[in-house]
Design a protein that fits this description.
This protein has 24 helices and no strands. The chain is an all-alpha fold. Among the domains are: 101 residues, no CATH class; 225 residues, no CATH class. The longest helix has 34 residues. The protein starts with 8 loop residues before the first helix and ends with a helix.
């Protein structure tokens, strides 16, 4: 019988205390009492998402329910004749509060989590990993590229980097390390440290390469649109980051090899083990073949969504139906996929909560307050400053989703205050490196705690490597990515 986790009382009280303190400070000039009440609720939500005294989806549900109860959050309608605001009705409040459950992006993320179950059930993910390891695993560096390739292949279809890195790659890596007598407390530098870091870093890279590489990516795009700036589709996201993606994918295993140099330079044992494991899988099952064909279909429809006239979320729903019909997953698997339903509830509450900041006028007020500073800066300097700030703030969030929820609307408001800039271009520049910046901390993204908890890389070393890789990644993005985005965006936007 598992022990219940005891949550410290201060974690339970902190969101409420913060919300009350913000409320008691009082609304600043330019904001009404209702808007400030909403800001205080949102502040409590962010603290709750950071501390997680209870499941994040439940925190979001509480916040949206409180907002509905007090009828704050929906856009206020103005009487055209008198200029007075109509009071928000209970019907309007509940309609706004539940609007996230009809959001296409939320359902895309939900469906993609279901697709991850398909890879797990069919065994296709493990087959891909073992196939690449047996081909490239004769050297430690080659093994690093095998890990990178595995994650790259899975990333478009599995938006949970914790699921694909922790669920598919971690079991393979954890089987390799003991073969060389490499353990967290014994010979970690033999090969364990290297495999740990290359697994972490390559997943951060793949999380940025594709819009569906991590769940916060499409959420950020949706929140930016809700705040007034439409950014990217699946294809435009991929093309906008393409040169940076290629560079980071190539250099990451090599950088990890240099900075976490394994004592084992090469061994036929790795490839031999993978070959043996691969053989035990036998020939591809019907489920694996079907899953591979369905994945290709999904990728074609996502890339050509504008050409085929099929919404990406529709494609994801088609994939679910095909997986059930081909018995890759059962309807019971669909109903029992708790992470997917959890994410649906979580994001369906976050989308209206984030949009509420714009509805009540807070983002416009904040942009006006900060506008004077940004107006005085050169547009390029202002954009670079916002990019660096957007990335550095990642240090303060233990959840990429909490980070996106708290920051995207705020930065949209700031971008709109910079004179003479293309807001879509600047927000594209800010959002694209979100995945790669997950490398900064041992808690910054879903898969980070998995590899940190493995114990092969201790705390101080983990933070140092995170800073070095984060600095290199951001430098490459600024030098290569920004000029490319400015060039290509008119053609793909």
């Amino acid at each position: 019988m598992s022990e219940k986790k005891v949550v410290p009382l201060w974690k339970l009280l902190a969101p409420v205390v913060v919300a009350v303190i913000v409320l008691l400070i009082g609304a600043p000039t330019g904001l009404g009492a209702g808007a400030w009440l909403y800001v205080s609720i949102f502040a409590g939500l962010v603290v709750g998402l950071i501390l997680e005294p209870m499941p994040p989806a439940f925190v979001g549900l509480i916040a949206i329910t409180v907002s509905i109860l007090f009828r704050v959050g929906p856009a206020v309608k103005i009487d055209a004749l008198t200029g007075n605001a109509f009071p928000v009705t209970s019907a309007a409040a509940i309609s706004w509060g539940l609007s996230g459950f009809s959001n296409t992006i939320v359902w895309l993320i939900f469906a993609a989590f279901m697709i991850g179950i398909g890879y797990q059930n069919s065994g296709l993910g493990r087959r891909i990993a073992l196939f690449l390891v047996q081909k490239l695993g004769t050297s430690s560096l080659g093994l690093g590229y095998a890990i990178a390739l595995t994650d790259l292949i899975l990333a478009p279809f599995i938006p949970s980097n914790a699921a694909r890195s922790g669920g598919t790659i971690y079991p393979v890596v954890s089987s390799i390390c003991p073969m060389f007598d490499s353990y967290p407390d014994k010979n970690p530098r033999k090969i364990g440290s290297y495999l740990t870091w290359v697994s972490l870093a390559t997943t951060c890279v793949s999380s940025s390469i594709f819009l569906t590489g991590q769940a916060p990516n499409p959420l950020a795009v949706e929140l930016a649109a809700k705040s007034g700036v439409v950014t990217m589709s699946w294809t435009s996201w991929f093309l906008a980051l393409l040169p940076v993606s290629i560079i980071l994918f190539i250099i990451t295993p090599l950088l990890a090899y240099i900075l976490c140099k394994p004592e084992v330079k090469g061994s036929s044992e790795i490839a031999k083990w993978a070959r043996t494991e691969f053989r035990t899988l036998g020939t591809m099952s019907f489920g694996e073949i079907a899953m591979a064909c369905i994945s290709v279909l999904a990728l074609v429809l996502w890339i050509g969504s504008s050409y085929f006239g099929i919404n990406p979320t529709t494609t994801a729903l088609i994939v679910i139906i095909l997986m059930v019909l081909t018995k890759i997953i059962t309807w019971q698997d669909f109903l029992a996929n708790k992470p997917a339903w959890n994410v649906l509830t979580w994001f369906a509450t976050l989308v209206p909560m984030a949009s509420g900041l714009k509805n009540v006028g807070f983002l416009n007020w904040l942009a006006h307050m900060a506008g004077g500073t940004l107006v005085s800066l050169d547009s390029t300097i202002a954009m670079l400053g916002l990019l660096i700030a957007f990335c550095v703030l990642r240090y303060f969030f233990a959840s990429a989703t909490a980070y996106v929820t708290a920051m995207v609307g705020l930065f949209v408001a700031l971008v709109l205050e910079i004179p003479g800039v293309n807001a879509t271009e600047v927000m594209t520049i800010l959002l694209l490196p979100m995945g790669i910046m997950g490398v900064l901390t041992p808690y910054g993204t879903g898969h980070s705690p998995v590899w940190f908890a493995s114990g092969f890389i201790k705390g101080p070393e983990f933070w140092k490597l995170g800073f070095i890789f984060g600095f290199i990644y951001l430098a490459i993005f600024i030098i290569v990515g920004i000029p490319w985005i400015r060039f290509i965006l008119p053609y793909i936007g």
